[in-house]
Specification:
This protein has a single domain, classed as (Glycosyl)asparaginase (Glutamine Phosphoribosylpyrophosphate, subunit 1, domain 1). The protein has eight helices and twelve strands. Strand 9 and strand 10 form a beta hairpin. InterPro entries: Ntn_hydrolases_N (IPR029055), Peptidase_T2 (IPR000246).
Length: about 300
C-alpha cells in the first residue's frame, strides 16, 4: 500500500499550559484538526501533495488565531504585510510572495506565481499587481483587524520594540504544511504575518526557499516556524535536506541536529515540520511548544500544543 502523510504547524514559541485557558486550547486544537482534515481528505482522494498543503494552509490563513492571512499582526505603520511560499518536491518549482497587503490568501498567490510566472519570488506592490491580474480576492483592512492584534501593536509602539508573536497570555504564529501523496511526491507551504511593529518592510524566512520552506522528492519537505533571522542564517529547511542527501541522515536525525544543535548554538528558537517520501513525519522544536498536527494513512490524527 502506498503511504500518504500530512503535517501542519501554527507556530512555535513560549507556549505554556499554565497560560492557556481550556477554551483557548480547544480553539487551537479544533483549528488544527479542521486544517489537517481538509488536507488529508485531498490526499485520500488521490489529490496531489501540492493541493493538500495549499488547502491546509489556506484554512489556517482564514483563522484569525494564527499569525497569517486574516490573523496577521500589525506592522509599524499600522498595516499588515504578509509572506508565503510553496514548493513542489517533484519538479523543484517554487513560488513565493513577500510584503503583500490585503491579499486574502497569500499562499494562493504564491502558487499562482509558481504556476503562471517565470519567477519564484515577488514582493510588495508588484506582487499585488500580479494577484490582480490573476483575479485573486483582496480584502479591506477591516478584514484583517483583530482587537488583540491591535493591542499588541499599541504596546509595541509605546515601547518602540519589534516582537515575535509570542506573549505570556496568548500565542499566535506562522503556519505551514508538508505532505506526501499517493505518487510519492512531496510539497511544502508556509505563510506568515511576520513580526508585530516590524519596520523597513522586514521579511523573514517563510518566503525564502531553503530557509523557511523547501521540498525535494529525493529527500524531504520542510516548513519552519520561529525567529526568522536565525532560520535564514542557518538555511534551516535546505540544511535538513542536505544532511539527508549528502550525509545519509534519516529525516529524524537531520531535523534533530538542525533544530536542537545548529539552531541552538546560534541562539535561534523555533521548530519545523517535515515529511519524506516514505511518509515518515517529524515535528521538531526547541521551544516550550509548537501548535502541530499530523496524520499518516488512516491512523488517528496527532494533535499537540505543548512540549510533552
Amino acid at each position: 500500500m502506498k503511504n500518504i502523510a500530512l503535517a501542519i504547524h501554527g507556530g512555535a514559541g513560549t507556549i505554556l499550559r499554565t497560560a492557556m485557558t481550556p477554551e483557548k486550547e480547544r480553539q487551537y486544537l479544533t483549528a488544527l484538526e479542521q486544517a489537517i482534515e481538509v488536507g488529508h481528505q485531498i490526499l485520500r482522494s488521490g489529490g496531489t501533495a501540492v493541493e493538500a498543503v495549499i488547502k491546509a494552509v489556506q484554512r489556517l490563513e482564514d483563522n484569525p488565531v494564527f499569525n497569517a492571512g486574516k490573523g496577521s499582526v500589525f506592522t509599524h505603520d499600522g498595516h499588515h504585510e504578509m509572506d508565503a511560499a510553496l514548493m513542489c518536491g517533484r519538479t523543484l518549482e517554487a513560488g513565493a510572495v513577500a510584503g503583500v497587503k490585503n491579499v486574502r490568501n497569500p499562499i494562493i498567490l504564491a502558487n499562482e506565481i509558481r504556476v503562471h510566472s517565470e519567477h519564484v519570488l515577488l514582493t510588495g506592490s508588484g506582487a499585488e499587481e500580479f494577484a490582480r491580474e490573476r483575479n485573486l480576492p483582496f480584502e479591506p483592512d477591516t478584514f484583517f483587524y483583530d482587537e488583540y492584534r491591535y493591542q499588541q501593536w499599541v504596546q509595541a509602539q509605546a515601547t518602540n520594540t519589534v516582537s515575535l508573536d509570542h506573549t505570556e497570555d496568548r500565542k499566535f504564529g506562522t503556519v505551514g504544511a508538508v505532505a506526501v501523496d499517493l505518487e510519492g511526491n512531496l510539497a511544502a507551504a508556509t505563510s506568515t504575518g511576520g513580526m508585530t511593529n516590524k519596520k523597513y518592510n522586514r521579511i523573514g524566512d517563510s518566503p525564502i526557499i531553503g530557509a523557511g520552506t523547501y521540498a525535494n522528492n529525493e529527500t524531504c519537505a520542510v516548513s519552519c516556524t520561529g525567529h526568522g533571522e536565525y532560520f535564514m542564517r542557518a538555511v534551516v529547511a535546505y540544511d535538513v535536506s542536505c544532511l539527508m542527501e549528502y550525509k545519509g541522515y534519516s529525516l529524524q536525525q537531520a531535523c534533530d541536529y538542525v533544530v536542537n544543535d545548529k539552531l541552538v548554538k546560534l541562539g535561534g528558537e523555533g521548530g519545523l515540520i517535515a515529511v519524506d517520501a516514505q511518509a515518515n513525519i517529524v515535528l521538531s522544536f526547541n521551544s516550550e511548544g509548537m501548535y502541530r498536527a499530523a496524520r499518516r494513512n488512516q491512523e488517528p490524527t496527532y494533535l499537540r500544543i505543548y512540549n510533552d
